[in-house]
Amino acid sequence: MKKRILLAEDEPNIVESLRFLLERAGFDLSVENNGHKALAAALDGSFDLLILDVMLPGIDGYEILRQLRADRSVHDMPVLMLTAKGQREDRERAMDGGVDVFMTKPFANAEIVSAVRELAQRTKP
Amino acid sequence: MEQRTESNRDRSIVGTRIRRQRRELGISQTELARRVGISASYMNLIEWNKRQIAGSLLRKIAESLDLDLAELDGAAENRLFDALNEIAHLPSLAPLDIEDNQTGELIGRFPGWARGIAALARSEQEATSLAQTLSDRLSNDPFLGETVHRMLTRIAAVRSAAEILTEYKDTTAEERERFYAIIDEESRVLSDVGEALAAYLDKVDEPNRTLTPLDEVEALFDVNANRFEDIETAASAFSQSLTDPHTVSRQSMARAMVDEHLQPVIAATIAQHVQIIETSTARVRAQRALIDYAVGAILMPLPAFQHQAELLKYDVEALADAFSVDIDAVCQRLTALPASISTPRFGYYRANAAGALIKQVGLDSLSIPRYAPACPLWVLYRAQQSPEAVIRQRAIFPSGERFVFVARARNTGPTGFGKPRQYVTDMIAMPENDARHTVYAPDPTALVEEVGPSCRLCPRPNCVHRVEDPLAD
To answer: In this predicted structure, what is the pLDDT of residue B283?
Structure first.
């Protein structure tokens, strides 16, 4: 059974690349391009892993992360934060909020694929 | 106390300066005396520093000799003295043990070097402020933050697509086409973002730009001696059609006339000063200031204003009544009066409740420190204790210069029971000699209050209001 990944990202060309890379790597990918929809999808509990952009229309990535970590049923879902906001305080804020991997844009394809693989292994089959 | 000695020294050589300049111009003592309307023997006493002069006679002599008044009466030296003293006590120069008791000697013997040091210090200060501004911008500027974010996002898309094309050899033709298109699209956007960023940084980096929009607008008024002839001419055509006697409707009619007819001349005035008004914020502020100016010009046409002002002896309240305008408009208008021997020189200052100077027009001889708090003893800061009352202050500075300050605090917020009042204070300043022509001329026995420019520049040892140590002990 393929692992299911939720990608919260509003840049269509980045979505396009990640879809190619992650599907090739054997994952099942769903995409939401705004904060509200991404939060609702993350909370429904059907995903194994969340790749989360910070700057999203509606609710930002930090708020999605906060609500996710506060929700009893999905609080332990692995989260990879992928953002162009890579300053020290952004990284600290993300780590304090409980992300598992913090990755900045631009990213190396191999790096993000291997990080996703590793996070996916943490979840039950 | 060094400062006072110095200004006395400056004053004592006024005569020498007059004599030197008169000889250079080839004018006889008798001729100069005749031109300024005094006897030759009195002129002789002046030239040999046996009589001290000031006020209108000094101005007449300066005009006859084609000299800048500041050059003649030592105001320029006093400013230089203050500037050098401030430099001598900069914390960063403390280890150098600068001989601050020799400042006057330096100015007297090596005026060029003295001016050079002051100019260097000024440009160093400006460079430091600029560096601070740029550093603040880099870390807090929303445009830069947003642009960098956009660039990184675009680069991420380009890089990821390019890696896919090079690393995955089994992509379909359709996939390849799609990723080439992504690279093409994203690199175009990226170059637009890069160009916008370069243009923005270019603007930030422009040399010699004045630092705040407020500075830019002040400089605009400064280089025009507070008067804009084109706007005056354009405004005069509309003054006569203002027939309504009520203040509010006169003002709104004048404002409507400006909006309808004078915007082009205002825009042209700003366009003529692109070197001074550089930023878009300053353009907006300059436009606002010139609209106020033009409204004033319509409500108080210069010839009529000049006439009434002389008649009413520059009484701000009486002038406000005569022209059905607000007091602040009259204050501003006074600074636009063309210079003449019988016209007092006015400066106009406005401070808010926090003591911040929010407007400053005219009067070179009265310098208010730009980077330090001013002297709290000025009536400008006291007037809010008695709102709406016109308060006069006869002020003497440590240099011996005397000014008359006239201030009045007014409410600028909405009125109504229980509503907090938001006062600002308008103040006009004039040299005491000039005040003779005005209703504010102080009685010779009236109290003279000792004030200063600011604590750091003020040598008065026993002032109980001192908050900082003086630079010159």
So the answer is: 86
Q: Please give the average per-residue pLDDT across B394-417, as a whole number.
A: 88
Span A20-36, average pLDDT: 95
Confidence of residue A124 (pLDDT cuts 50, 70, 90): low
CB nearest to B155's CB, from A21, A106, A110: A106
CB-CB neighbors (< 8 A) of B167 in chain A: 109-110
Angle subtended by helix axes B14-25 and B29-36, to nearest 10: 110
User: Quick check: is B235 in a domain?
Assistant: no
Contact (CB<8Å) A84/B167: no
Say yes or no for a CB contact (<8 Å) between B152 and A55: no
B18/B92 same-domain check: yes
B268 assigned to some structural domain: no
Instruction: List pLDDT tens digits, range B313-346.
Output: 999 999 999 998 888 999 999 999 988 878 898 9
Q: Residue A89 maps to which CATH number? A: 3.40.50.2300
Hey, is the C-beta of B155 within 8 angstroms of any chain A C-beta? yes
**Is B278 domain-assigned?**
no
ipTM of the complex: 0.93
- Asked whether residue B308 is domain-assigned, the answer is no
Render pLDDT for B388-404 as a digit per residue (tens, 0 to 9).
899 999 999 887 889 99
**For B163, which of A13, A16, A109 is closest by C-beta distance?**
A109
Please report residues of B whose CB lies closer than 8 A to that of A13. 157, 161, 182, 185-186
* Domain final position from B88, B121, B154: B121
Residue-wise pLDDT tens digits, B225-235: 889 999 999 99
B108 and B152 share a domain? no
- Taking alpha carbons only, the member of B124, B83, B169, B103 closest to residue B372 is B83
The CATH number given to whatever domain includes residue B50 is 1.10.260.40
Q: What does the DSSP assignment read for B321-346?
A: HHTT--HHHHHHHHHTSPP-TTSPP-
Q: How would you list the strands of the sheet with A49-52, edge to edge?
A: A28-32, A4-8, A49-52, A79-83, A101-104
Sign of CA dihedral A107, A113, A115, A119: positive
- To the nearest whole Å, the CA of B151 is away from the closest chain A CA by 9
Specify the DSSP element, H or E, that contains B360.
strand B357-361
pLDDT at B77 over 50: yes
Residue A105: which of B153, B168, B179 has the nearest Cβ? B153
> Which residues form the domain of A81?
4-122
pLDDT band at A79 (very low <50, low <70, confident <90, very high): very high
Instruction: Provide, as residue numbers in chain A, all residues whose Cβ is less than 8 Å from the Cβ of B178.
Output: 16
Total structural domains within chain A: 1
Contact between A5 and A47 under an 8 Å Cβ cutoff? The reply is yes
Number of domain units in chain B: 3
In this complex, is the C-beta atom of B175 within 8 Å of any C-beta atom belonging to chain A? yes
